[in-house]
Amino acid sequence: MYVPEPTKPGNMSSGKAPGAASGKPTDDNVTAPSAEDNEQNKALPPTLNPNRQKFEKGLSRSYKFLIGPLCGLSLLSSIGSFVSANFLDGENEFLDKVSELSNKGAYFFNGVYSSIDNALSKNIVGTLGYSLVSVASVLGDNENMYQLKGPGSALDQLPALNDNTANNKKIMEKYGDPKLFKVYESYKDSVIKTYDSFKAVCSDISDEYKSKISKGENILKATSEIFITTKRYAERHLVISTLGMFTGFFARSVFGFKKLGATIRDIFGMDADTGILGTAFSPPVEDPSDKYNSRPKYGIAGGGYLMGGFVDLIYRWAEIPKADLLAVGLDNLGFGFMVTANAASNKRAKELAK
């Protein structure tokens, strides 16, 4: 006699005897899963894995009950600290401490949350960017934390870049359906697609300059049309600002040009913020089944980021009391919405990957 092996629900038994290579019989007289079955289970889409489903649900709740409230506390306490120091009875030690701790906490946990979320979506570029933000929160203080966040900000906006370039003509010629451009098959695939986004945008800028100048168009008018009135505004400013923020960071932190480096970082950071804000108005990818709609969230994120960058720039030159805290608090308003926008885009990508 032999015990039938229930290889798959609804199928007939395989006819293998117990103790064969397919598996050993259990105490309940049922054959254990074979090595082949185990490999098939590993190959199932991640969304069918109950443990991963629970983990992702817990990750989502961590934003709702920890990170979101931290961002709100960071913003409100920073506003309170700034108002108290400049318009009321002077510095308030309690508000200052709450602001400092919540600013750090919001940076740290936003970074952890999004680095995990991007890792689950196989986007190593986003993972690295958000991880660097968490590192900046640990190493930085009130005065320099916003500046140390520069490299992280330069990279964590690149998932938004890929959201925008998905329907870029050059990207569509290479990858086809724009809905699937944000579906990453591997970490390497995310790097290649991000590189291709950069390459496509730079190529578009170069092509348009050559075309307009060859027609005798004024350089200032050409620049305005290429960078300001264009429908591809968001992706172009995200590319330019990424390069600028790295330049500002190295000028300040590596070469010691603190005020110059901070100014470059802030100016290009604000340029990036207009790009993130512009994502809400850029040509959308045709996807009627997308119930997450990340673009309005990107718009709010860009607005918060833009205010934070402007306040930090003023602080670097005027040193208004507690403006450094206010800059990070406003930045966390943008950061909170940036994280949810990126997460919404990743959720849609996971659905399309099934």
Helix/strand layout:
Blueprint: H1 35-42, H2 50-87, H3 93-120, H4 124-139, H5 145-148, H6 150-156, H7 158-165, H8 169-175, H9 187-214, H10 219-227, H11 233-253, H12 258-279, H13 295-318, H14 323-352
Helix pairs in contact: 2-3, 2-14, 3-4, 3-14, 4-6, 6-11, 7-9, 7-11, 9-10, 11-12, 12-13, 13-14
Strand content: under 5%
- Assembly type of the shown chains? single chain
Which regions have little confidence, pLDDT < 50, spanning 5+ residues? 1-30, 40-47
Number of strands: 0
**Count of runs of 4 or more consecutive helical residues:** 14
The number of distinct structural domains comes to: 1
User: How would a textbook summarize the main sheet?
Assistant: none
User: Element order, helices and strands?
Assistant: HHHHHHHHHHHHHH
Helix content: over 70%
From the N-terminal CA to the C-terminal CA, the straight-line distance is 41 Å
Q: What structural category do the secondary elements indicate? A: mainly alpha
Rg to the nearest angstrom? 25 Å
Overall shape: globular
Mean pLDDT over the residues: 87
